[in-house]
Amino acid sequence: MKLNIAVLPGDGIGPEIVEEALKVTRAVCQKYGHELHEETALVGACAIDAVGDPYPQGTHDLCMRSDAVLFGAIGSPKYDNDPTAKVRPEQGLLAMRKKLGLYANVRPVTVFPSLVDRSPLKADLVRDADFVCIRELTGGLYFGKPQGRSEDGNSAVDTCVYSREEIERILKLAYDFAGRRRKKLTVVDKANVLETSRLWRQIAQEMAPNYPDVETDFLFVDNAAMRLIQWPASFDVMVTENMFGDILTDEASVITGSLGLLPSASVGLHTSVFEPIHGSYPQAAGKNIANPLATVLSAAMMFEYAFGLAKEGALIREAVSASLDAGFVTEDIAVDGLKPRSTSEVGDWLVQYIQG
Ligand code: IPM
Ligand code: MN
């Protein structure tokens, strides 16, 4: 099969982790006889520095004509510490999501058996945790208008907007996921306070009878945040709006032992994007210490979701599990006397496993 992928390494540790995911992708393509075509483009702070735009038109054109996008991370302390900056790296990511119509961000949370003791939670609580968080990605507070500052700069507004159409399409996708898994959908909202949440809940209640084999339940987001810690194994598929999903998935990621382990797929109307859920970790940039596994696992999702290549994805997951079992890991999970390995050493290990 011919795989045309756009590679957007971005900022911070982005280039390092994407390189390892690419090494793994190339090894898998070689093994299974696929023809891989990669083209790289700028996004984020590096794109602002180079051309003044965090999501340049050329990058968008490349994404549109590719079969899948492998994305690293964006963000830079230069902008984080300057709340008045007019152009920000994050705008590049948001523009990409909006222009590619990526309304659903699929974030699977799986606990690797060899890492249960790395979790800040008791091993017994996390052992059976295995759920998918489906985050709405192109609506809500991230995109609502009006947004901005008053003329004197002393008041600010963000608006949360959701339409029926936006809610229905993400719920449909979430129901389909739940139907293929353990058939339990948890809709997370704040319907006791927010009108948008009441619309979400109303629409979910209308749709539920169409999915009789799926059990639908509702949780307020504050309660969901608590339940994630208290009883993570109680979830199967969770669906929620953009901002709640952003926050809950960072919380969910630590259950697995490291933020550096969670992959994601953003899917919707055009080309899908595969990216780790973590950020650009600027403190580690250029040091060859960041955990590449979230990006490597995102590449596995790319094989499965964008190309329907299940065996290829499974081989990557197997290699990742084997590296964890072997204790061949980066410093974020190298405890109990394990020698911390570099980003590229972990990538090399995975490639060897795949070739083996
Ligand atoms: C994520 C990130 C982004 C988000 C940032 C970088 C804009 O945190 O993908 O979760 O908030 O969506
Ligand atoms: Mn986030």
The DSSP helix count reads 13
Spell out the helices and strands N to C: EHEHHEHHEHEEEHEHEHEHEEHHH
Helix content range: 40-55%
Q: Give the terminus-to-terminus CA distance.
A: 22 Å
CATH structural fold name of the largest domain:
Isopropylmalate Dehydrogenase
Tell how many strands the DSSP assignment holds.
12
- Beta-strand percentage range: 15-25%
Q: What would you give as the CATH superfamily of the largest domain?
A: Isopropylmalate Dehydrogenase
CATH architecture of the largest domain: 3-Layer(aba) Sandwich
Average of per-residue pLDDT values: 96
Characterise the protein shown here.
This protein is an alpha/beta fold and 356 residues long. The chain folds into 2 domains: 1-102 and 262-356, Isopropylmalate Dehydrogenase (3-Layer(aba) Sandwich); 120-256, Isopropylmalate Dehydrogenase, CATH 3.40.718. Helices cover 43% and strands 20% of the residues. It is built from 13 helices and 12 strands. The protein has a 10-stranded mixed beta sheet with strand order 2-1-3-12-11-4-5-10-8-9, sandwiched between helices. It has a two-stranded antiparallel sheet with strand order 6-7. A hairpin with a 6-residue loop joins strand 6 (144-149) and strand 7. Helix 1 packs parallel to helix 13 (343-355), helix 11 (293-307) runs antiparallel to helix 12 and helix 12 (310-325) crosses helix 13 (343-355). The protein is globular and about 55 Å long. The protein starts with a strand and ends with a helix.
